Amino acid sequence: MAKTQAPEDAFTAEPFVPDRGGLAALRRAAAGCRGCPLHRDATQTVFGAGNADARVMLVGEQPGDQEDRQGKPFVGPAGRLLDRALAEAGIDPGETYVTNAVKHFKFTRAEPRKRRIHKAPSLRETAACAPWLAAELAVVEPELIVVLGATAGKALLGSSFRVGEVRGTLLERQVHGRPRRLVPTVHPSSVLRADEPDRDKAYAGLVADLEVAARVLAG
Fold first, then answer.
1. Can you give the residue ranges of every domain in the chain?
2. Contact 13, 129 (CB under 8 A)
3. DSSP letters along 15-29, please?
4. CATH 3.60.10.10 fits 14-218, yes or no
5. What share of the chain is helix, strand, coil (3-state, %, to 5)?
């Protein structure tokens, strides 16, 4: 059952996280999370999805525009690119669990009714959402975490994380009180943002990092 609810200006999801019930209970409870102000503008909570027994969990930053509208993680262009890169690296996307460090879409608008523009969550907002990610890890118990980008890395490994320094390497760290194995890489959206001459190189780099993860899973 869910704990006592926090006030509207609270900056932690912890009171909303149920003590038991697995992913289904977590997903239902997350739909009503008011642990930080991001819920006020987002369409809905976007919880993790995928194989509850997955050997690998992929953790990104936050939902984007399409994810916010559909209520599912990684269903937009970055998600489609990620699925393609996973398959090329030898990891079946259907056998993974995907989620984000932050469960609500943070955005700005240049003008009313204009396209919503992604805005990176703050460290405070990421920390507020950390209890959901900790709960997902505790239920899924993946053998490996693939860290997609800087925000996910800071959420899991602390504010000193720099994706460029450790991408494509196997890390063994304490994460939410448990020893975990992690392979960091860039967020697939960064590949999409790359200029055309550099996009193929950026994509190849993502695939190469995911191949490291595939080799770890192969033992």
1. 14-218
2. yes
3. GGS-SSSHHHHHHHH
4. no
5. 45, 15, 40
pLDDT of residue 9: 54
Query: What sections of the chain are H helices per DSSP?
Result: 22-30, 65-70, 77-89, 123-140, 150-157, 163-166, 188-193, 196-218
Q: pLDDT-based confidence at 215, cuts 50/70/90?
A: very high
Give me the chain's average pLDDT, please. 93
- pLDDT for 109 equals 81
* Phi then psi dihedrals of residue 118, to 5 deg: -55, 140
- Kindly provide the b/e burial profile for residues 52-75, where b requires at least 16 CB atoms within 10 angstroms of the residue's own CB: eebbbbbbbbbbbbebbbebbbbb
List, for residues 42-89, the tens digit of each pLDDT value: 999 999 999 999 999 999 999 999 999 999 999 999 999 999 999 999
Structure tokens at 102: 């932050």
